[in-house]
Every structure is written in structure tokens, then in C-alpha cells.
Amino acid sequence: MRQIDARIITQQVADMVVQANVELPQDVLGALTTALANETSDAGREVLQQLLDNAALAKSTRLPLCQDTGLAVFFVELGNECHIVGDLTEAINQGVRDGYRDGFLRKSSCHPLTRKNTGDNTPAIIHTDIVPGDTLTIKFMAKGGGSENMSRATMLTPAQGWEGIKDFVVRRMAEAGPNPCPPTIVGVGIGGTFDLAPILAKKALFRPLDVPHPDPEIAAMEDELFAAINALGIGPMGLGGRTTCLGVRINMAPCHIASLPLAVNVQCHSSRHLEVHI
User: What domains, with CATH codes, occur in the chain?
Assistant: First the structure.
């Protein structure tokens, strides 16, 4: 049984929340660069160039990519041959406290009714899976409010099938318009249960934009939704153009014979995610 000191986890989390908020991942930078080359709208091209310039400035100055440094969302894969010496949840939360403080990142976590800020961006949202092996994998996402507010979940009837799924996703993005700061990345969760579908959708956002789905049928579904969303013409920051979406990512799971759960989790152009292996 491999032992992992919780203090190591805290330091890794503190480092990763800062890095994710100041360095846009290479897959997102690549997608923005491709979008700029393909965009025909003058306004759209100007916005995309500004987004790329902003990413370069954030990296060089170590200032946040966006003033909304998000809620801290984690997906943790804990190997069944690992033993955490200490409290895993508290280790992650302490890393969030340290990183958001030392990185001068905005704290956005508050009481849902009184709106009183928690002061340190905790508690983090932590999803934990037990997996084979002796490695601890921590995936972090800084989830901004503008994009998260545009996310939705629903229960379709099985008869609605793929056409119903496509209609719901595309209508959701049309209704979202400029609100999630497009160009967006769209995570789609299909199947499972009412509670699992949104988790599938959010997990999907971690798959790099330059890595196609290994299942050709699902990859084709992603391409179809990608084309349909971009055909809306909303464009970068809602100013019109060909680039409303940088990518669609789908996760699917078996569901009840009487159900078709569906969730759409929207991510803005500042798709800040990072993972570490301990």
C-alpha cells in the first residue's frame, strides 16, 4: 500500500489552481488559433486575436486570464492501493485556500441565500472515484459563473433519441447567446440518472480539444453538434461570426429503459483546467 502525505496534496493543489488561472492549456490555444484562421467576421477575428493576446499577457505577467477565477472544481481518481496520510478533502481545500490567496485570485464562493462570501473560495466541489492502482490523479477546473449559469439538465423521453438530444443542445446554446462568453466548449452528458448526467457533462470538458472521442459514433455526434452550434452565427463574444464553439465533448452512460437523461455543461473560452498525478 502506497502512502501519500496530505501535505503533498495541499502543495500540489495550491500550485495547480494558480497555474490553471494564468496559463491557458495548449489545446485551447490551438483551437483559438485555428478559429482565428477560419473566422470570416472582422469583429470575430478582432475578438479572437484579443483572446490570444490576453492569454499571452496572463502567462507573462502571472495575472489571471479572467477576473472570474471561478469555483474550484475537482475530479479525483484515488488508486485503491493508495493510503492518504491525513484528510484528503481538507488537504484539497487547504490547497485551494493557499493558492487563491497567494495567487491573488478572486474568491467567488458564497452562501446561496445570504450571499456572504466564504472568504477563501472553499469548500471546493470534489468528485472522487476509486480506481485501480497506486496513483492519485487530481483534475482541477476553475468554473466561472457566466458559463455555469447557462448549463442545463433535462429528462427526455427515450423516443426523442438523438434528434431530441441535438435539438435540446443546440437550442440551449442559441438561448445562451453571448452570455457564456463564446467561443464556448460544450460538455454533454447522455444517460445515467438525473444526477449522473451533469457530472458526465462536466467530466467531458476535461478531454483536450485536440483529442477526438475514441468511439467513432460518438465522435461523429460531437462533430454534428459542433457544426450545428457554429451555424447559429453567434460568434466570438456574441458579435457574430463562424466561431461560436471551440468544441463539443460527449460522455455517455447506460440509463433506465424508461429514461433519457441529458445535461449540457457550458465552458467559456477561458477553459482553465489542469491535472496532476501523485
Answer: 2-22+65-143 (3.30.360), 146-270 (3.30.1330)
Work out whether the CA dihedral 155, 158, 161, 163 comes out positive or negative. Answer: negative
C-alpha cell at 161: 433519441
The 10s digit of each residue's pLDDT in 94-149 is 999 999 999 999 999 999 999 999 999 999 999 999 999 999 999 999 999 999 99
Give the C-alpha separation, 169 to 155, whole Å.
13
β-sheet bridge partners, residue 278 = none
Residue 142 CA to residue 59 CA, distance in Å, equals 16
Backbone angles phi, psi at 4, to 5 degrees: -125, 120
Q: How far, rounded to the nearest angstrom, does the alpha carbon of residue 149 sit from its chain's CA centroid?
A: 13
Question: Using CA atoms, how far apart are residues 12 and 122, in angstroms rounded to an integer?
Answer: 16
Q: Exposure string (b/e) for 249-278, b if CB count within 10 Å is 16 or more?
A: bbbbeebeeebbbbbbbbbbbbbbbbeeee
Closest CA to 69 of 28, 30, 12, 109: 109
pTM (2 d.p.): 0.95
Query: Which residues sit opposite 84 in a β-bridge?
Result: 4
